[in-house]
Design brief:
The protein folds into 3 domains: 136 residues, Response regulator (Rossmann fold, 3-Layer(aba) Sandwich); 146 residues, Serine Threonine Protein Phosphatase 5, Tetratricopeptide repeat (Alpha Horseshoe), CATH 1.25.40; 108 residues, Serine Threonine Protein Phosphatase 5, Tetratricopeptide repeat. 68% of the residues lie in helices and 5% in strands. The protein contains 29 helices and 7 strands. The strands form 2 sheets. Strands 2-1-3-4-5 form a 5-stranded parallel sheet. A two-stranded antiparallel sheet has the order 6-7. Strand 1, helix 1 and strand 2 form a beta-alpha-beta unit. Helix 17 packs parallel to helix 20. The longest helix is centred in the N-terminal third of the chain and has 26 residues.
């Protein structure tokens, strides 16, 4: 390892800028550097080389931008967990900067940069990377707890102020990945107490509060960020996520209206489509997807993604229609699927196409054709696919009577969903999975299962873990009193006025007229007394809700 050279990938569509960047980096030390003009070339390079650092421009010509490519490569598991991300951009627009910041780059350099700026930024990052190397190696070995131990040990031994900031940043990311949201929130609050201008700590705290169900705290922070030009659009996306989680679809739509349609990112577009869909406004959803699709006609990867989203929307409309009304929607879906996948470049795309076409055949009542399309598909194929494709696979195999395969994927869906740390991805996938479970009659079975898991955590005094499981059981089957009571019990123990928009006192109201077993009635009576004794703790300040309405 003494002669190991750091492997760096440069992704820049301008040939002159690419060569200049390479020569500047070579002046910093001995590296193995490979250069690419776009994300597609980088993807092909990653099949044979494991890069330590990717240095990419944001705009990559007639292609997806740098952030979209990095997100794709992470999802496709082509980037190591430890891969460093360095972004370059001459674009100072808020939607560009906020997109970059949202994936937590290690370095962001604004063009035009001086050689001194580039050298200083990269020299510091590469020096810190050496110090953090043991933690990064633990990450690649899927041992995040060991990485955290190394970071804690190093910080106790003493670090320079700048080094401590880098160690703290990685620790925050690890805590979120490990779903230790309360600890992550404390870490980011501590950073902001010392310096309120640290943007990565603002985003880290928002994500921690969101993931831990502290949505009111999250909204307060987002309201403040609306005044910051660089973060305004991303703040609206976050606020829309919160409102969709609370099933306030009209308010989510109005929040997203603050972002110009041309500036909507792919995830934000999907959020807006979901808000339209949940309000029964299919024409608006189709119009938006078609407009985004046509405006990205020259960017093939983005055009394909919008095309697939539009095809999926037509499939969903067909699912909710009578058999004799499905033909126009299914024909539109099949044409779009073919249009998007004329040049299939990877297995993930192939699986996506095949399961969607098989689902279309099932909806047409042609089981034989559906079976023919997926006859060579394995559970492994579905498990390694996107969550949307996994949901399609569940529907197809349930429809074909292969319940064993469907259930195996169903279990994997839950694991994959819980591992997602992107709030938009999580809320979109969760909505799709819950909708599918309801359509297949699996909601009650799922609710019972996760309620039992919650009870195990609760009895083991892991109340923070239990509360989310009881919340999910309650949301799946809100009419089952035991699930609501379990959620209420956790909130009273945690002294929380609400969790993900479910207000403690409203849960009490929901249970008043329900028929409870003698033991549950006794629990309910004790909980009510506890709440009544602490009105200052359990009363939600409605002013915060009014503030969100006024922002929209």
């Amino acid at each position: 390892m003494a002669n190991y050279k750091t492997k760096i990938a440069i992704v820049e569509d301008n040939a002159t800028a690419r060569m200049n960047l390479r020569s500047h980096l070579m002046a910093l030390g001995e590296f193995d550097i490979a250069s690419y003009s776009n994300g597609k070339e980088l993807r092909n390079g990653l099949r044979t080389i494991e890069f330590d650092v990717v240095v990419t421009d944001f705009h990559l010509g007639q292609s997806k931008n740098g952030v979209e490519w990095i997100q794709y490569l992470i999802e496709a598991k082509l980037l190591k967990a430890s891969t460093g991300l360095v972004f370059l951009t001459s674009d100072r627009l808020p939607q560009t900067i906020s997109q970059i910041l949202d994936i937590h780059p290690d370095v962001l350099i604004i063009k035009p940069y001086t050689i001194k700026t580039l050298h200083s930024s990269m020299h510091h990052y590469l020096m810190m990377r050496k110090k953090l190397l043991p933690a990064l190696e633990y990450l690649d070995a899927e041992q995040p707890s060991q990485a955290l131990k190394f970071i804690d040990k190093s910080m106790k031994e003493g670090l320079s102020k700048r080094a401590r900031s880098d160690f703290t940043k990685l620790k925050g990311r690890l805590l979120i990945n490990e779903q230790q949201y309360e600890k992550a929130a404390d870490l980011y609050k501590n950073v902001l107490d010392k310096s309120s201008n640290v943007l990565w700590a603002h985003w880290g705290l928002i994500k921690s509060e969101y993931m831990s169900g502290q949505w009111r705290h999250c909204q307060n922070m987002l309201n403040n960020l609306l005044n910051e030009q660089l973060t305004k659009d991303k703040a609206y996306e976050w606020m829309a996520c919160v409102e969709i989680g609370k099933e306030n679809y009209s308010l989510a739509e109005r929040l997203l209206d603050n972002i110009k349609e041309n500036d909507l990112t792919i995830p934000a577009t999907k959020l807006k489509v979901l808000s339209y869909k949940m309000q029964g406004r299919s024409e608006d959803a189709i119009r938006l997807l078609e407009k985004k699709r046509q405006s990205n006609f020259t960017v093939k990867e983005r055009f394909d993604e919008y095309t697939i989203e539009l095809a999926r929307y037509h499939l969903q409309l067909a699912e909710s229609s009578a058999l004799n009304d499905r033909a126009p929607k299914l024909n539109a879906a099949k044409c779009l699927i073919g249009n998007a996948n004329r040049t299939i470049l990877d297995q993930q795309t192939q699986h996506q196409r095949d399961f969607m076409l098989a689902l279309a055949s099932l909806l047409e009542g042609d089981m034989q054709r559906a079976e023919k399309i997926v006859h060579d598909k394995t559970v492994g194929d579905a498990k390694n696919a996107k969550l949307t494709t996994m949901v399609d696979a569940i529907k197809v195999w349930f429809g074909l009577g292969d319940e064993e395969k469907a259930r195996e994927i169903w279990v994997e869906c839950d694991r994959k969903l819980s591992a997602k740390d992107d709030q938009i991805d999580q809320i979109l996938a969760d909505n799709l999975i819950v909708e599918t479970e309801k359509a297949l009659g699996l909601s009650e079975e799922k609710a019972k299962k996760i309620n039992d898991e919650g009870m195990v955590h609760y009895l083991g005094n892991k109340i923070d873990e239990a509360v989310d499981l009881f919340y999910r059981a309650h949301m799946l089957c809100p009419d089952v009193p035991a699930f609501t009571l379990n959620l209420l019990q956790c909130l009273s123990d945690l002294r929380r006025a609400d969790y993900k928009g479910q207000k403690t006192l409203l849960l009490v109201d929901a249970l008043r007229d329900k028929e409870l077993s003698p033991s549950n009635l006794k629990r309910f009576t004790i909980i009510k007394k506890k709440l009544e004794a602490n009105p200052d703790v359990f009363t939600v300040n409605e002013i915060e809700d009014e503030l969100t309405e006024s922002v929209a």
